[in-house]
Design goal:
The chain has seven helices and five strands, in the order ααββββαααβαα. It is mainly alpha-helical. The protein has a domain of 158 residues. It has a three-stranded antiparallel sheet with strand order 1-4-3, with helices on one face.
Length: 237
């Protein structure tokens, strides 16, 4: 057999075996981060599909580009269902209809650019926080696959993710609450209420985001301590 042909076959075998070894290593690393890695991919795809759906709705004249924009103020429900509007002194601005059925609903027939912007601010912050959480989570899983479960890099990534969940949840809820209140305020005469700016962040933070963020910060400290101990053991060997 030709020596050149033998060399080519040998090189191909080395490449094939090397590729198989890499696949095996990747499979082992993937098992380390499952099922969270698959769930992260799934939620990432769902987030992208949701963004595409909202973009298509906006192009069709729905969402923040709708011809009529409506806003609800839930706390007015304490006045009772079907309460007369004049009883609580609520008057809509020109082009705004007001109704009460457990909650106060205002609808602007000719919304301004500012009101459309406020509608975007009631939805965008939470979406951005979710996207950032998924991105940091994906980076965290890659770090765990590449460096192992007990490293300073992994601890730092968990710390960043924990603070993002806590701070991001509060900030997004505050922005959403302010935008929602301001939207209602812009549609009513002599009405100024910003209760959601203070109540919405606490309602959004507790209990799940607060527990998830605290758990990540705690495990980050545990993993960081484990990484230091591992380095000390390696240094003494």
């Amino acid at each position: 057999m030709n020596v050149g042909l033998i060399a080519i076959i040998a090189v191909l075998l080395v490449l094939i075996l090397g590729s198989i070894a890499v696949r095996i290593q990747e499979a082992r690393s993937r098992r380390l981060t499952e099922p969270l890695q698959t769930m992260t991919r799934m939620f990432g795809v769902l987030l992208l599909l949701g963004l595409v759906s909202r973009a298509m709705d906006a192009l069709d004249g729905y969402g923040f580009l709708s011809r009529v924009l409506c806003a609800n103020y839930p706390s007015v429900g304490s006045y009772g269902s079907y309460s007369p509007i004049h009883k609580i002194g609520v008057t809509g601005r020109p082009g705004v209809t007001v109704s009460i059925n457990g909650t106060l609903q205002t609808c602007a027939s000719h919304p301004t650019a500012g009101q459309r912007t406020l509608v975007v601010l009631t939805q965008l912050p939470q979406t951005l926080v979710w996207a950032a959480v998924l991105l940091l989570l994906w980076q965290l899983l890659r770090t765990a696959s590449q460096t192992g479960p007990f490293t300073a890099q992994l601890a730092a990534g968990m710390r960043r993710l924990g603070w993002l969940i806590i701070v991001g949840t509060v900030a997004a809820a505050a922005v959403r609450g302010f935008a929602a209140d301001q939207l209602v305020n812009s549609m009513l005469k002599d009405w100024s209420n910003y209760d959601d700016v203070f109540s919405a962040p606490m309602g959004a933070l507790f209990p799940i985001p607060a527990l998830a963020g605290a758990a990540l910060l705690t495990f980050a400290r545990i993993i960081g301590a484990g990484a230091v101990m591992d380095d000390e053991i390696k240094a003494t060997v």
